[in-house]
């Protein structure tokens, strides 16, 4: 299993590899590339959402056989079924997804679930969507507390929650120990250009409430599929601040895009991120 004496843990985002791989194959890739654990994706596709109702036997056997754990879940399924929707049926489905994801996390020993920082996504937000969002977050935080699973907001690419400071407004409002922030430093860098703020100063607003961090590359105005080392994310500088705040779980977030050399891309990503983490 994972070496408990490590200074930090570096996870690999599931979508960095082909979805056709079995769980055992995915966990073997994690180990062979040098990462410490896998971050599972439960996005808005029906295929991924179906995981919430399926047996976890295959996953548990894969974890046992490979010795590679799943320590976090990226739960972006709320983009389609947001907690703040005007439609009560969508809100109900969103809360069902939330409860099932927390139960799945507890079953697999997952420590933290990353929540998408949206009140709504495919509809216009207003004071009512924000109120619904807060109301359901309070209920979700209690669900999480019962299972001992942390819920952390991802800082997104939309103005609703693109900074740690904005995420912390909801964390403080809900005021529950199991709700915090799981920022994406690539997204924070893009937001810093929009608001003329320093990324590290923004990170500091989450002091005591940051559970883990996505390490992702971005360029101005673009948030996905930017190769590591070709963008403007301030990896070493930001990681230093995060480590000072006690953050020790990091995940390399990048995507498989149909390329034949995807395994080498994952190995190179591990080398790149380990170098930045060690420099920090």
UniProtKB/TrEMBL annotation:
GO biological process, alphabetically ordered: L-ascorbic acid metabolic process
Ranges where the Xylose isomerase-like TIM barrel domain occurs: 28-275
Keywords: Isomerase
SUPFAM superfamilies documented for this protein: Xylose isomerase-like (SSF51658)
Organism domain of life: Bacteria
InterPro entries in the cross-refs: L-Ru-5P_3-Epase, Sugar_Epim/Isomerase, Xyl_isomerase-like_sf, Xyl_isomerase-like_TIM-brl
Keyword Isomerase belongs to the record: yes
GO terms of molecular function: intramolecular oxidoreductase activity, interconverting aldoses and ketoses; L-ribulose-5-phosphate 3-epimerase activity
Pfam family for this entry, one: AP_endonuc_2
Name recorded for this polypeptide: L-ribulose-5-phosphate 3-epimerase
Species this chain originates from: Anaerostipes hadrus
């Amino acid at each position: 299993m994972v070496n408990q004496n490590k200074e930090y843990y570096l996870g690999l985002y599931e979508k960095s590899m082909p979805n056709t791989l079995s769980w055992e194959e995915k966990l073997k890739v994690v180990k062979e590339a040098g990462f410490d654990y896998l971050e599972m994706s439960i996005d808005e596709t029906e295929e991924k959402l179906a995981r919430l109702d399926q047996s976890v036997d295959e996953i548990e056997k894969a974890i046992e056989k490979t010795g590679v754990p799943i320590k976090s879940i990226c739960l972006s399924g709320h983009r389609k079924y947001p907690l703040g929707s005007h439609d009560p049926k969508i809100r109900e489905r969103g809360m069902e997804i939330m409860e099932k994801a927390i139960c799945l996390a507890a079953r697999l020993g997952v420590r933290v679930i990353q929540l998408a920082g949206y009140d709504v996504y495919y509809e216009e937000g207003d004071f009512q969507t924000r109120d619904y969002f807060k109301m359901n977050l309070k209920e979700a935080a209690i669900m999480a507390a019962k299972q001992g699973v942390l819920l952390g907001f991802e800082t997104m690419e939309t103005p609703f929650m693109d900074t740690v400071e904005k995420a912390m407004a909801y964390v403080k409002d809900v005021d529950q120990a199991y709700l915090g922030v799981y920022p994406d430093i690539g997204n924070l860098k893009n937001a810093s250009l929009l608001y003329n703020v320093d990324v590290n100063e923004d990170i500091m607003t989450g002091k005591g409430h940051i559970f883990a961090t996505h390490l992702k590359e971005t360029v101005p105005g673009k948030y996905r599929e930017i190769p590591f080392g070709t963008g403007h994310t301030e990896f070493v500088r930001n990681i230093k601040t995060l480590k000072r705040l006690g953050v020790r779980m990091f995940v390399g977030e990048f995507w498989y895009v149909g390329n034949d050399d995807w395994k080498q891309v994952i190995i190179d990503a591990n080398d790149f991120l380990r170098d930045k983490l060690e420099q920090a």
